[in-house]
Design brief:
Length: about 260
């Protein structure tokens, strides 16, 4: 049978921070290059000034049942992993270092999974919650439209953007399925420009914009003519009167889109 290595279990990490480019403490916990069956489970990461959990270049890693609270940076970062699982974690309160919202670039996320060149295979993302992110709840590469998705039951609320689709292959089609986004200040679900998307079994409630597809940062008319979006078997409900959102940050969007 394969060997197993148990990493943090029921552990409290508190008030940790990066100590600079030459320092060694850049994450609350970082796992790099492990080929053993490993676990980061049932731990608490509180009031951090750097990424709480980082997993890079690993296989057979389970990150499950953790709580990450009040992080100034991306909270959970996963890149270049195979046959791994991110499940049943709760991330609350993710902030930018400058304490200002980026109006065009969506770089900060509670869960930044397999983006910016960090391709993954066999990654299951299931049952996680992102709440109170200053920017994005979930930024990740979903499954291809013609393939089965191993991810779902994820929930994003009270963020700027609930789910940001960031595909590995921009020329292909990405599938976002079985997610819930509510009370987000700008978008429930968002895809970058020039990406074909199939979205199904979504529950999007009380977001300023439910789904925004192929919106270009350069302007609202910068749309990808050769790409398409299909939204199927989903529920998209309107915005409550007391949800002012952050439409003042991007007035050209306003409230014109569904």
């Amino acid at each position: 049978p394969p060997r197993s290595t148990l990493f943090p279990y029921t552990t409290l990490f508190r008030s940790f921070r990066s100590v600079g480019q030459s320092g060694t403490l850049h994450y609350g916990f970082e796992l790099v290059g492990s080929t053993l069956t490993s676990f980061i489970k049932h731990s608490s990461f509180r009031t951090s000034y750097t990424t709480a959990i980082s997993v890079r270049g690993c296989s057979e890693v389970t990150v499950s049942g953790n709580v990450v609270f009040n992080t100034t940076d991306n909270a959970v970062v996963v890149a270049v992993v195979t046959d791994s699982e991110i499940s049943n974690n709760l991330v609350l309160g993710t902030h930018e270092r400058a304490q200002t919202l980026s109006t065009n670039l969506f770089l900060l996320a509670s869960y930044q999974l397999c983006t910016f060149g960090g391709t993954c295979s066999g990654l299951v993302v299931d049952g996680n919650v992102a709440a109170g992110s200053q920017d994005v709840g979930f930024m990740y590469q979903p499954a291809a439209c013609d393939g089965a998705s191993a991810s779902g039951h994820n929930e994003a609320h009270s963020n700027r953007i609930g789910f940001f689709v960031y595909p590995a292959d921009p020329s292909g089609c990405s599938r976002l399925t079985n997610v819930t986004a509510w009370r987000n200040a700008q978008f429930g679900a968002f895809s970058r420009v020039d990406v074909s998307v199939q979205a199904d079994n979504l529950a999007l409630v009380d977001n300023v914009v439910g789904v925004n597809v192929n919106y270009g940062n350069a302007g609202i008319n910068d749309l990808g003519a050769d790409f398409r979006a299909d939204v199927l078997d989903s529920v998209i409900l309107g915005m409550s009167p007391d949800n002012s959102g952050c439409s003042q940050l991007l007035p050209e969007i306003g409230r014109a889109h569904v």
